[in-house]
Amino acid sequence: MATADARRRVVLAALLTGGFMLAEVIGGLLSGSLALLADAAHMLTDTGSLLLAWLGYTLSARPADPARSFGFGRMKVLAAFTNGVLLILLAAWIVWEAVHRLFNPVEITGGLMLGVAVLGLVVNVMAFAILHGGEHKDDLNLRGALWHVAGDMLGSVAAILAAALILWQGWMLADPLLSILVAGLALFGGVRIVRESGHILIEGTPHGLEASRIIADLKEHVDGVSDVSHVHAWALTESRPLVTLEVITRPGANAESVRRAVKERLAHAFGASHATVEVIGEVSPSAA
User: Has this prediction a pTM greater than 0.90?
Assistant: First the structure.
């Protein structure tokens, strides 16, 4: 998804979630429902996360300068990491409150809770549809925002189920129990986003760019390559891998031709369009 399109989508979703959050807070306070208050808290973090995602896209579009040779491209990944941490913290807060309510049940107005939860579900479905309307598989920033909205959408479903059980059976414990289920889903999404974005931030090796795989591929497919060493692979963003390596050429091979062939192979086979390749001629035994 183009950055401009993704930026527009997160702003629209932020307006939807932020606008309904206030109504859900009021509904949660009036009805006494933890599920609604938890969903409202989730909507608050949704709005913040969506604005953070927007900021990540905005800053990442800024050009490079002398102090930042890669520009602000990694801001999207940093925004995704922050959103993942917020999801984990939100899950912990919901569980804490739910456990407290299990031991100290409160009276809940099921009818009001049900009406607000249904409206919340409609808003969350609309926000999810907006964010899900383009390619997002390799965009950690947008995936972080999607996890927030998806968790909020499931929170609305849980609130609806809890309200139905309260109206049908008068079972007040349905509210905190279903809130814990929603917290578990939020925790799952948060941990995944933190792991993937954190791996990029610590410059871990991207999947498929392991040194052994690159060495074997270049030696097999690039003429003139005798050996490959000092391979380092990392990523600026989830879709922009970087590679540096040293190539030793066979006797008689043209160093510049080998360098170009290696860079082309890295871009074609590994998607590494930004590679720094140092070429060294093989030393013959007689010259050693």
Answer: no
